[in-house]
Amino acid sequence: MEHIVIIGNGISGVTLARHVRKLSDKKITIISAETDYFFSRTALMYVYMGHMKFEHTQPYENWFWDKNRIDLVKAYVKNVETKSKTLYFDNGGSLQYDKLIIATGSKPNKFGWPGQDLDGVMGMYHKQDLDNLEKYAPNNQVCKHAVIVGGGLIGIELAEMLNSRSIPVTFLVRESNFWNGVLPEGESGMISRHIKNHHIDLRLSSNLKEIKSDENGKVKSIIIEETGEEIACDVVGLTAGVSPNVDFLKDSDIELGRGVKVNRFLETNIQDVYAIGDCAEQHEAIGNRRPIEAVWYTGRMMGETLAQTLCGNRIEYKPGHWFNSAKFMDIEYQTYGWVFSERGKKDFEQHFHWRHDDDTKCITVAYNKNTNAFLGINTFGIRMRHETFDKWLTEKRDVDYVMHNLSEANFDPEFYSRFEKDILTAYKNQLQTA
Amino acid sequence: MSLARPDALNITTKQKIALALGIVGLFILTLALFNVNFPNKGLFLTLALGLIVVGTILYSRDAYLNKLEGIKNDGQWFKSVSSRGIWGWILGVILTAFYIVLYFFAEYLGLGQGTDGSNTGLIRLFDPLSQLLSGRNASQWFVYGTLYTVAILAFGYKFILKYRHNRYQQLRTVSVMFFQLAFAFLIPEFMYRLNSGIPYYDLKNMWPLSYYNFEQYRIEGFLTTGNLGLIMLIFGVLSIFVISPILTYKYGKRWYCSWVCGCGGLAETVGDPFRHLSSKKQSAWKLERWLIHTVLVFSVIMTVAVVSSYLKAGGFWTGEEGNKRFIEYWLSNEAFLIGIGIFLTILFVGVMVFKRNELGKDAKYGAIGYFVVIAALVLLFYTGTTEEIFFIKSYKLKSAYGFYIGSIFSGVIGTGFYPILGSRAWCRFGCPMAGILGFQQRLFSKFRITTNGGQCISCGNCSNSCEMGIDVRHYAQKGENIVRSSCVGCGICSAVCPRGVLKLENDGMEGRINPTEVLLGNDVDLMKLVNQK
Ligand SMILES: Cc1cc2nc3c(=O)[nH]c(=O)nc-3n(C[C@H](O)[C@H](O)[C@H](O)COP(=O)(O)OP(=O)(O)OC[C@H]3O[C@@H](n4cnc5c(N)ncnc54)[C@H](O)[C@@H]3O)c2cc1C
Ligand code: SF4
Ligand code: SF4
Questions:
Q1: Is residue B471, in this structure, part of any structural domain at all?
Q2: Which of A300, A383, B40, B205 is most exposed, with minimal Cβ within 10 Å?
Q3: From the CA of A105, how far away is ligand 1's center (Å)?
């Protein structure tokens, strides 16, 4: 029986295993050094905040794996020998595979800051990071102040986490407004204000210079590059993005770039070795996507796709329209299609922006100013229907159509106030003044 | 029911004062329980209840209004009281003890313990209020009803503040507060005042939740009180056979379970801090399906048996001595039993023919239930007498039913175990009404929880906060709508979802149940290939 071995029990590896099991009788083994069972990384924050216990982040009960004949191995793969198709573990063991799938995810970026490996300095990616945070920041007596470096999605989650335990936070963000490398200015301004409303000390256009140690090798303070200001703190969170977790493959024959290089079939340069999820890097970016897509949904989609290939139906990874979502403290964010920030947008991309007076809801609709084609939407504080936008994007609707039919896409709970009329009025006014 | 969170992390001074007020209120009640004879009962009762309410209100305002609107679940798995810690267990024991005393030892509360049978203790404290409303002295049920109503109102207010960004939550909470205050509490008391002889009737409680609704004394009550009584009897029958199916078809069982029902009302307000404690294990789901349907079958059989036993007598005598008259039932026992048999058979065959697919594996259990009921009907038909049903004295059977289902299950376990089993243990495992509504919801309803394409990140917030123990994530992460008989439509899963994945909706029946394998967002050809198998 063919032996499928998957390194990494994250969403991509597990989705693949589930689908392979549905389609076939192959022997499946999943290896992970992190946890015994698959858990949802995206829910780590809720464990620290006390909304859930760690076991609640596990989407499948423990009997699931046995029942579906998916073997779980807890070990760290330190070497991959593709010639003999053997994996070597750091505990001395080894394992033979017929097909190998690398789904090892990411690791937090560290940019060589002085002091980045001190006690009390941590990323927020793995279960171990959570345990670490629990150790160094159990409450606001032990951790009197925390500093977060890097204003992305994980950074703001970490800020919310610490806030839930009343630990004062200073949040260093390189950009001039929160996440404005991705978000248009109107939105990133609103989120910046929202962060401050939560009494988080948000420092824009600020970089980390160094992290200072106390006599025990634990963080004592940090210094800000621009101002030289020293901020005393007990914990430093490094959340300046992630990169593929592929260092253990450096000595193998598998081609690496920043991640594991794959073609559209998610195949590497070595036969019978594949890569999916955060650690896979496309030779060429697909459409507007980045070559490395470090999000949940794409990991899942690659898993769904590769399962077909492994079970005899070789198909390309051909993702549909882009979508994503996040939550910034109390404000939910969803996006469908492409809306770029001022920095990233092309000349033809024009935006219509509407913001509610309460400064917690807004939308930005991107369209092609030459053809009026609808390109995408960012929505904050108003839920919208994935299916509707997916359809409109496929049908290549123009922006007028979208604006007039926006209520069809509303996904807010029943009885919520609706804003489509206000939005449409604003849209028409903008057209007149434009 | 207690606001006390002795282990609360960082509670503010204001919250401490509020807690203290509430505790003083409870303390007055406790003193009364231990037979302290307060001089001006009306005043002290007002004081006690007032302090509890004011304490709750002040506490909630300080807890929620100082923060931005949003989900407020921080620390719920850390606090001892809401995570089965020591305080949770203590609270559970106190509540359970209260229910046991209430149901079985009301004399300890002071019921009829005074000379000439007047009340003492806690119940006496409530006499003035009862006099005011219905013109009679309080009973243990009046005390319970009052505390229950006060609790729903005070904690309902707290819940509304907690979800002040969510209109769905606010409206349904106002609704349960209203139905509890008006329908369960005030109207029945006023009705008594009219001195009509109509039995206590909480109009929103329908059979089989009020399993006693068609018992002999009530039927006699309805039939001897003229048009009003008759209207109520007819309403009682219509509400379960006509009104409820229509509303459930349009809106799902939520119209009742989380907008109207008193048990649900308590669970959603007082029970809210415990909602996440329900078990999401698949084994719990299996147990649930067996238990709730067994209770349902049992209550159908019991009710039929009880009704059958008095129908056998043909009618009953009423009126004063010397002026007695015989009121004949217009329905004979045989017609009744055969009618029920035919009704159930039509229902059963109809479901098996038209809804076989939706039923799936459950069809077998449905069949078992059906045949058990039919067998019981046959047995009743041939062996039942006015005294005995199933060869057991009918009053014994009746009291056993009231004891196990009515008292132990719904009260002691259902509410007393809030801090252990979560807030809806009764609704989930025991309520026969929920069983019927759930059956309808699964098969004949426009209601479903829609999932938003491929947006789910499997975080588990939805499952965690489902008080009915539904593993919502199981469906959401597959992009599949949630159509579960037990869902009470509380909408909390939707509220807590950080990615806006869930929406409670009433829409067409077509495509309501939509098992999927590959989610929206992936290659359209792949989706077609995999999902249309
Ligand atoms: C806090 C946080 C919040 C997030 N929120 C979102 C969100 O809201 N939406 C979204 O789209 N994305 C989010 N993400 C990103 C998302 O979680 C990732 O894209 C996704 O988990 C990647 O899945 P994966 O299967 O590729 O890898 P991973 O989930 O990283 O799994 C890889 C596993 O492989 C193990 N492993 C690595 N190397 C080895 C080795 N040599 N031997 C053995 N085991 C090894 C790792 O320990 C890990 O357990 C978030 C990430 C974090 C950290
Ligand atoms: S599934 Fe959602 S709406 Fe239904 S009972 Fe559970 S939490 Fe409430
Ligand atoms: S539906 Fe929402 S709350 Fe539930 S697992 Fe998915 S993202 Fe989390």
A1: yes
A2: B40
A3: 5
Q: What is the pLDDT of residues A294-310, one digit of tens each?
A: 999 999 999 999 999 99
Q: Domain residues of chain A, as ranges?
A: 3-107+243-310, 121-240, 323-433
Mean pLDDT value of segment B82-98: 94
For the beta carbon of residue B463, count every other beta carbon within 10 angstroms.
Answer: 23
ipTM of the complex: 0.96
User: Tell me, which fold does domain A3-107+243-310 have in CATH?
Assistant: FAD/NAD(P)-binding domain (3.50.50)
What is the per-residue burial (b if ≥16 Cβ within 10 Å, else e) of A355-385?
bbeeebbbbbbbbeeeeebbbbbbbbbbbbb
Both structure tokens of B192: 């008594």
Q: Do B458 and A40 touch (CB under 8 A)?
A: yes
**CATH number for the segment(s) A121-240:** 3.50.50.60
Is the CB–ligand 3 distance for residue B519 below 6 Å?
no
Contact B171 A415 (CB under 8 A): yes
Cis peptide before B199 (omega within 30 of 0): no
Handedness of CA A65, A252, A307, A279 (dihedral sign): positive
A78 is written with which tokens? 């330190």
User: If you count them, how many residues does chain A have?
Assistant: 434
Closest CA to A192 of A210, A173, A211, A218: A173
In chain B, the number of structural domains is: 1
Percent share of chain A, pLDDT over 70:
100
Among the partner residues B9, B459, B495, nearest to A40 by beta-carbon distance: B459
User: Does residue B223 have a pLDDT over 50?
Assistant: yes
Q: Are B149 and B186 in contact (CB under 8 A)?
A: no
What does the longest C-alpha to C-alpha distance in chain B come to? 86
* Residue showing tokens 């209260």: B98
Residue A10 CB burial class (10 angstroms; 0-12, 13-18, ≥19): buried
Mapped to the 3 state alphabet, what secondary structure does B296-330 carry? HHHHHHHHHHHHHHHHCCCEEEECCCCCCEEEECC
Same fold for the pair A3-107+243-310 and A121-240: yes
pLDDT value, residue B9: 58
For testing the chain B interface, which of A16, A300, A331 should be mutated: the one with the most B CBs within 10 Å?
A300
Torsion, CA B299, CA B304, CA B305, CA B309, rounded to 10? 140
Rounded Cα–Cα distance for residues A390 and A386 (Å): 6
Q: What is the pTM of this model?
A: 0.94
Residue nearest to atom 8 of ligand 2 (CA): B490
* Domain made up of A323-433: CATH architecture: 2-Layer Sandwich (3.30)
Q: Does residue B459 belong to any structural domain of this protein?
A: yes
Measured at the CA of B64, the angle between CA B63 and CA B67, to 5 degrees, comes to 110
Partners of residue B526 in chain A, C-beta under 8 Å = 304-305, 308, 315, 318
- Tell which wins on pLDDT, B176 or B188: B176
| Residue A387 contacts B where some CB pair is shorter than 8 Å | yes
